[in-house]
Amino acid sequence: MKKIYCLIAILLFTISAQAQSVSILGDSYSTFEGYVTPKTNEMWYYEENGNKNDVNDVTQTWWWQVIKECGYKFCVNNSWSGSTIGYQGYDGNDYSERSFITRMDNIGCPDIIFIFGATNDSWAGEPVGEYKYDNWRKSDFYTFRPAMAYMLHHMINRYPNVAIYFILNTELRDDISISCKEICRHYNVPCIELHDIDKQNGHPSVKGMRAIADQVKAFIQK
User: Fold this and answer.
1) Which of left, alpha, beta for 38 (phi over 0: left; psi -120 to 50: alpha)?
2) Which residue from 64, 191, 194, 198 could staple onto 207, CB 3.0 to 4.6 Å apart?
3) Is the confidence at residue 11, as pLDDT, over 90?
4) Whole-prediction pTM
């Protein structure tokens, strides 16, 4: 009987140890001082937040709540405030250094990846471009659709057997939102379409972070 209990305990431990580590590839919505790799990435959320937002503790962030409440392990959070998926940023500037495409190989070896992006592509007025699913060139990445497609194509091959989810923000341009959902469908990447997110200064408040966490949890647990 003791051997049976030991085997059951080992089995449960093995199961609980698998598919548990989480990495985040994101923008300002997923930053928090001291919890982003590399440390040179620009932050938006701080313990003493001067951005007219009430989020001032890492435990209030959407991703911390999901990881904690689902029993996951924290792997890497490579988020950069103001970053775009494509290469074109605000005022037409080249944002390739901070883009999701540039950072997508630097998120460790997780079992689950949450990609939370497209907000700055929308806000910065990045051209949407045409749907393109192969034969990409660098010039293609200055428009949204080819950049988004290349990112998902690369990531599902770079991280085999990893659960990848794309989180779609509220209040984005219609062409950006539609493009995200269409490209996610093409690559069979689950798209978590958020709704009713409370924001302060354009970013999730404590209430908004809670709502994001709840909606992400409900989606992945259904």
Assistant:
1) beta
2) 198
3) no
4) 0.91
